[in-house]
Design a protein that fits this description.
Number of strands: 4
Structural class: alpha+beta
Shape: globular
Strand order of the largest sheet: 3-2-1-4
CATH class: Alpha Beta
Strand content: 15-25%
Oligomer: single chain
CATH architecture: 2-Layer Sandwich
Order of helices and strands: HEEEHEH
Distance between the termini: 32 Å
Length: 114
């Protein structure tokens, strides 16, 4: 079983336990080697409410961890504008460590309750 299959197996196991509702949507994270994407999803209506990624950040001198933190903060700002205060964190099968944890920290600093 390769790495991608293992991650998808973990992702399926996580998603069976958590789901985003209108009251507490899901903050989903996807990580590649160079970029990180985060989006807030209402699973009941199957709609993406807000999204942000490192592709929206222009500062090239920042580290990947710093960019991840900023993605969390900016996503929290977008969520606040749409009156979303609490979310369920979905780590997407990745270890809660490094850049994935930085997104969560940034979202908390931006005012979201995880």
């Amino acid at each position: 079983m390769n790495t991608k299959q293992q991650r998808n197996k973990r992702r399926t196991r996580i998603r069976s336990k958590i789901a985003g509702t209108a009251m507490r949507p899901r903050l989903s994270v996807f990580r590649s080697n160079t970029q990180i994407w985060a989006q807030i999803i209402d699973d009941e209506k199957q709609v993406t409410l807000a999204s942000f990624s490192t592709k929206n950040i222009k500062d090239a001198k920042m580290t990947k961890s710093d960019k991840s933190f900023q993605v969390g903060e900016e996503l929290a700002k977008l969520a606040k504008a749409k009156k979303i205060h609490a979310v369920v964190f979905d780590r997407g099968g990745y270890q809660y460590h490094g850049r994935v944890a930085k997104v969560a920290e940034g979202a908390r600093k931006g005012g979201l309750e995880l």
